[in-house]
From TrEMBL:
<feature type="domain" description="Outer membrane protein beta-barrel">
    <location>
        <begin position="6"/>
        <end position="216"/>
    </location>
</feature>
<protein>
    <submittedName>
        <fullName>Opacity protein</fullName>
    </submittedName>
</protein>
<dbReference type="InterPro" id="IPR011250">
    <property type="entry name" value="OMP/PagP_B-barrel"/>
</dbReference>
<feature type="signal peptide">
    <location>
        <begin position="1"/>
        <end position="20"/>
    </location>
</feature>
<dbReference type="InterPro" id="IPR027385">
    <property type="entry name" value="Beta-barrel_OMP"/>
</dbReference>
<dbReference type="Pfam" id="PF13505">
    <property type="entry name" value="OMP_b-brl"/>
</dbReference>
<keyword id="KW-0732">Signal</keyword>
Length: 216
């Protein structure tokens, strides 16, 4: 009896295994970020700050905005994967003037790393395949704050993050496809400052991405 059940389960899994595929994606695009609250509890060097910060994306400045993605498609519609997004923000001139900071940015990336799930609809738009996705993870930004001779310049794991994605994909061949999508992220960041104190800010990013995927 047990052998019969095992055989039935194995045959039932065959369609799933036969349609499974692994894909690797690289994307870039234009990314922006709305204003957000910024709180700095400083020490004797960095002043306390509680303002609404303005952020600039500067997507094409070095280092540029980009992302990497690995996805395992369990079947034609459902996929799971890991996404590493080098999104970034810079405090604008008004924010620097208001806070007195010489520099405040996450220009080597907010670096949002999420575990995602995706759902797609093959053939729903002819040769275009629409898809949506979302995930949870962490922010690992390169924190850069300079004020009164104090400098924080290091990678830190600063808090949880979530991502949401919606786009369309076009198959160039059996193994290569291109895609365009909207991607939004939200991260809660609490960073430690070099000479004591903390920086806290929740950052939203909005991006329009274009990319290429290779499937195996």
């Amino acid at each position: 009896m047990l052998r019969t059940i095992a055989l039935a389960a194995s045959f039932g899994a065959l369609p799933l295994c036969a349609s499974a595929e692994l894909s690797f994606s690289l994307y870039g695009g234009l990314q922006s970020s709305p204003h957000s609250g910024l709180t700095v509890e400083g020490d004797r060097v960095v002043p306390d700050t509680d303002v609404t910060a303005g952020w600039e994306g500067r997507s094409t400045d070095t280092p540029p905005y980009y992302g990497l993605r690995a996805t395992w498609w369990a079947n034609d519609r459902l996929g799971f994967g890991l996404d590493v997004n080098h999104t970034k923000v810079y405090a604008d001139d008004e924010t620097l003037a208001e806070t007195g900071f010489d520099r405040l940015e996450f220009s080597d990336g907010l670096n949002i790393v999420t575990a995602n799930a995706y759902y797609r609809w093959p053939g729903a738009l002819g040769q275009l395949t629409p898809y949506v996705g979302g995930g949870v993870g962490v922010a690992i930004p390169h924190v850069e704050l300079t004020s009164n001779g104090s400098e924080t310049f290091e990678y830190q794991m600063t808090g949880p993050a979530v991502a949401a994605i919606a786009g369309v994909e076009y198959d160039v061949s059996d193994s290569v496809s291109v895609f365009a999508e909207y991607k939004g992220t939200y991260s809660m960041n609490e960073a430690e400052l070099e000479d004591g104190g903390t920086l806290e800010t929740d950052i939203v990013t909005n991006a329009v991405n274009v990319g290429v995927s290779f499937s195996f």
